[in-house]
Amino acid sequence: MTSTRHVASADRWGPSGEYPDPYIFLQSVRDGTGRLLDFHGRVFNEAATRLVSGWGPALSTWSALEGVPSLGALGRVVDGEPSLTFEVGLRRGEALERWFLARAVKREDGVELWLSDVTEAFAERRSLREALARERLAREREAYLGLALETARMVTWEWSEARGAFTLSDNAASFFGQPRDDVGNSLDQLLRNVRPEERAQIAEAFERMRYLPGPHSFFFHGEWPDGSVHIYEVVGRSFHEEGQPVRVLGVALECTERERAHEALREAEERYRLASLATNDVLWEWCVRDGRILWGEACTRVLGFLPEEMGDFDGWMERIHPEDRERVRDGLRLLHDSRDEAWSAEYRLRGKDGAYMDVLDRGRAARDVRGRLVRMIGSMMDITERKRMLAHMEEEARFRERFIGILGHDLRSPLHAIALSARELSRRELPPRQEGMVRRIESSASRMGNMISDILDLTRARLGGGIPLHLSPTSLPRVCRQVVQELEALYPTRLVVVESEGHCEGIWDWERLAQVVSNLVGNALSHASHDDPIFVRCWQEAGRQWLEISNPGPPIPPELLRTLFSPFGQGRSVRTGRGSGLGLGLFIVRELVRAHGGEVTVRSEDGAGTAFRIVLPLDSSATRPPLEPAVVPR
User: Fold this and answer.
1) Nearest to 174 by CA among 225, 127, 246
2) Within 338-465, where are the H helices?
3) Cα–Cα distance, 587 to 605 (Å, whole number)
4) How many Cα atoms within 13 Å fall on the side-chain side of residue 600?
5) DSSP label at 398?
6) In this predicted model, what pLDDT tens digit does every residue of 149-179 receive, in sequence order?
């Protein structure tokens, strides 16, 4: 496209070559469907030719013009919308060199662009805007300074040798808690805010600040009209010329809360130090990012090391027993990767004498806003002696229980002889008085036999690896009915209802289940009202066997519920049925159910009575942990 063609076109469509500002006609470029794709410059006067020299014909390639409306905006002008007026800048290199006021007007299937050079006017406007912006910025800075002084609780002050004046910033009155008229621009008036006993000292400090060059700072206490005492820090710098003071500039800051916080921190540090000295726990602080550990003074007394000898994280890890090291490290990794705050571990730690001690180590984690572990503070306790005592106590307990088991086993033989002799005597013709004595011997021997059986069951449960079972196909309803028939002889007037749904058969120990049912039904008969029935229900559901024994009697006290299945509980002992009176009945019930791979629970509420519920696997021949009934049916 040559300049001759541009001028000829301009003569036809637009202004002649003498028009001083650029004129450009942009012809629409469309596809076969009439959709606007771009604009091509088709008509240029001489000023426009100089402007676009070296550019391509397509408007979309004119990157040197900044501020040209979008293709859609120009297209809407072509479609009949009003003309557009806008500013465009001509970029040469990295800078905008010229500015034009442009007007886009529809012409047939294109747009006429009329450009007027407004560079000088734009520069004047820009200078004016910049001046206004600087003035606005100065006012904002002044306002910000005042706000900052007010927010930071500080005032500025100046002493001028030439003027002989001492001046304070406008917020001095509120800063010192005084009426505005009582705070003037003089050192004497400033000293009125100082405690009387400190005024001479502060006056001397200001005088030193005046004559000694360099920075200075000091504190004083001021008393407000309401009687409250505030702490102030004065910071200033003296400026000298030819050895003579000419000016002193400074600020006064209220630091009441800061000083009180520092005092509280000092007191806390002192308490921490005293606590560290008073306890046998080794206090420590772990800085996770660099591995440093700050050890308390007690580490010398407990471990034999000086705090500086304990070293960092790696040094601590090296002193942990090799068999415990990875477990401790894994626990710390888990804490690092989680959101937990607490950590604890028991492990063996080597002291300075080379011997290992058992320690209980506990810490609390501190995390940043992203939840990352950054610090942990904790304490380490020497539990060597405690673990030794616990081991000794456990050994004594095992010995006692083993002794009880042996004793119970050895008592069976003479007791069996007594029972047989009493039974033989009961078959003979005896006087009434002697016959009563024989019945008492038989009853006492039976009770004593139950006690010995319970003691042996306790010993097996606690020491012998569990109560042994003799498993065989068993019908739970038949077990329940047989037990109830035996108890009817003791409770001829009581009503015990046995209900079952389905076959309720499985692989269990008949005698042990009978022992369970006897204890629970006897317990219910003992504590329910004589008019209340006892319900024994059996059913199968979800591939498991359920047994429930309930009565509408008074509820079990809450304080007893927590230890109901513990051995030797005497709060609700049962002396009927299979119970021995030693407080072992419910403990043995639980152990027998667990030996079958099941679990027993109890619910006791006012108005609803008490219900013991047992869940069993259908086949207890496989040894497995007790079942946890996730959903209790019915």
Assistant:
1) 225
2) 384-426, 432-462
3) 21
4) 22
5) H
6) 555 567 887 888 777 778 777 777 778 887 7
